[in-house]
Amino acid sequence: MRLSGLQKEVLSLYRQCLRECRKKPDTARQHFKSFARNEFDKNMGIEKRDFAAVEFLLRKGRRQLEMYSSPGVKNIH
Amino acid sequence: MRPAATRLAAAPRIQSSFVAAPKSLVFQALRCYSSAGGLEKTEVYERIKQILTGFDKVTDPTKITETSHFANDLGLDSLDTVEVVMAIEEEFSVEIPDKDADTIHSIDKAVEYITSQPGAN
Fold this sequence. Notes:
The structure holds two protein chains of two kinds.
Chain A (H helix, E strand, L loop, with lengths): L4 H18 L3 H17 L8 H19 L8
Helix pairs in contact in A: 1-2, 1-3
Chain B lengths: L1 H9 L9 H15 L6 H13 L24 H14 L6 H4 L5 H9 L6
Helix pairs in contact in B: 3-4, 3-6
């Protein structure tokens, strides 16, 4: 399946999220992974051609990732 | 061997055929170091198969073959595929850059990529 540039950006953001999860303590890693996956799943229904919506969510996601990447955030529930 | 070694120690600059023995030993040691080599295709496949068998999103593990496509055969979506590729990354201790990761959609592609990576282990 050919992916659009925007779709690749979404996958890239998910990949970054998973990479950040690796830096979290072993016991909490799975929580972070599930959380990230859940955040993406929430918007699974967005039409892929709704560029404005996808771009908005990408920005929102990146901000969220930045927040959760802080070493101070050690677990998530 | 022994007299050669002691003589060598006593006179390090000696130019005799005795020198050949320790020299070739050193050479062999170096060769062993670099001969780690790439991974076998079958081994890579078996390890990837293990990853996929343990992945709960794969509904039918009997469909895992050398050429399975993540989406078409195993029923994974694009996010699952990202997870699989990341798991493969961890398993073989390599970092797969985005542009390469985007091209890995099937087991044979993954095997091909890993066997082409000199750092994979």
